Amino acid sequence: MALRTFKIGGVHPPECKIAEHAAIEELGIPKRAIFPLGQSLGAPSVPIVKKGDMVKVGQLIAKGEAFISSNIHSSVSGKVFAVDDYLDASGYRKPSIIIDVEGDEWEEGIDRSPNLKRDFSLSKEEILNKIKEAGIVGMGGAAFPTHVKLTVPAGKKAECLIINAVECEPYLTADHRLMLEKGEEMLVGVSIIMRALEVSRAIIGIENNKKDAIQHLSESAKKFQGIKIMALKVKYPQGAEKQLVKAAINREIPSGKLPLEVGAVVTNAGTSLAVYEAVQKNKPLIDRIVTLTGKSVAKPSNFLVRNGSPVFMLIEAAGGLPEDTGKIISGGPMMGKAVTSTDIPVTKGTSGILLMTQKESKRVPVQNCIRCAKCTTACPMGLEPYYLAILSTNENYESLEKEGVMDCIECGSCHFTCPSGRPLLDTIRVGKNQVGKIIRNRNVR
Asked: Of 350, 352, 353, whose CA–CA distance to 75 is shortest?
């Protein structure tokens, strides 16, 4: 039987899953932790602590007061050093809470035992409130507040929950290890989300290069009602939301719409584990699994990292910064972004840190477009990247909008496949940002 996948576009970059056999290791506690206030899509959180305050692990330190925002909790205990601007992954200084660590004192009521807690009796509303209070966001990278995603608007109905366990980005293996080592906890989390959505069916989509995870979860899922494990074809970007929905239930999400438009809600494997810990263990989102990897890394690893820990801690734990490092990427090589400092903190959306060699990170010389149309063939959204790039360069934003630039998922397939080395994604992204501003201003009026 042929494996399912999306139909339009896609590429096959080298997988480089060199950390897939590295068991999850708990990273140590940082000496100083940094918590940017903008850790989720939407409005930044509002600090509720000030300089000199003492905090514990799991204590609320910033509230998500806007509709689309999320709470932030301390992952360490100690004294608030400052509420001030600090360098983030984008290279800009952003409002942050800075805590100097003293000991490791936890808030009462957080269950830190490894025991699986399977049974739950909370109502839909109680589950959503627990998720909101715990500050859970999508942990695949987008960091959309989970309580908002799971709140189905009036007039809409969810029919199916889809769990994104694809992890199609080259190098990243955090979700793979999570499924192998925390599979049952994740499945309980899936069941909890199903109750919150009032659906009886869930599909966990996993690319077929993770056969051990597919087998393990398939056995474990027999104990759970309504959860199906679906092996998917290895093709990038299989883990993109629209492509995953197409592969899993053969429904196409209309332009500008969300999966709920076709009866689906999509969440990440890591998010499912975080939901389990919030609902069953009363544990807010204070840590996550992060892959630290690269071809020259001495010890490619998957670390359980407390939020706010500086990136250099992960690098040191994996054997140090290789001499031939050319670029440090937050995320994977296709959609991740280069960082300017190893002092930046791990946040809710940090899935991996990739240390690329100088050879890998060096871009080929840009040449003229040869009109080969490889970028168009590769685009999973059916767009014409070469044309969008021209329109963006010429600042023709009206035509850019008409040609569907807002449908671009920024997967980088066009750039990857271009034989002329043209920076298609970079150019399109600039234009997309401008078109987005124009649309927002138009809507305000």
From this structure: 350
Task: Read off the DSSP letter of residue 427.
Answer: H
Query: Is residue 445 over pLDDT 90?
Result: no
Task: Walk me through the domains of the chain, giving residue ranges and CATH numbers.
Answer: 124-281 (3.40.50.11540), 374-444 (no CATH)
Name residues whose C-beta falls within 8 Å of residue 131's C-beta, 6 or more positions apart in sequence: 146, 147, 150, 196, 275, 278, 279
- Determine the length of the chain: 445
* Beta strands 93-101; 32-36: pairing state: antiparallel
Show Cβ contacts of residue 90 under 8 Å, excluding neighbours closer than 6 positions. Answer: 337
pTM of structure: 0.95
Report d(CA 174, CA 20) in Å as an integer.
8
> What would you report as the CA-atom Rg of the chain, rounded to the nearest whole angstrom?
21
| pLDDT tens-place string over residues 265-282 | 999 999 999 999 999 999
**C-alpha to C-alpha distance for 417 and 426, rounded to whole angstroms:** 14
pLDDT, tens digit, 9 for 90 and up, residues 103-124: 999 999 999 999 999 999 999 9
Q: Three-class SS of residue 145?
A: strand
Is the CB of residue 136 less than 8 Å from the CB of residue 275? Answer: yes
Nearest to 292 by CA among 303, 280, 278: 303
Give the CA angle between residues 433, 438, 440 to the nearest 5°.
95
Closest CA to 415 of 402, 424, 407: 424
Distance CA 89, CA 48 (A): 23
| CA 275 – CA 375 distance, rounded (Å) | 38
Map residue 370 onto helix, strand or coil.
coil
CA 29, CA 116: separation in Å to the nearest integer? 25
Report the alpha-carbon angle 9-434-138, nearest 5.
Answer: 60
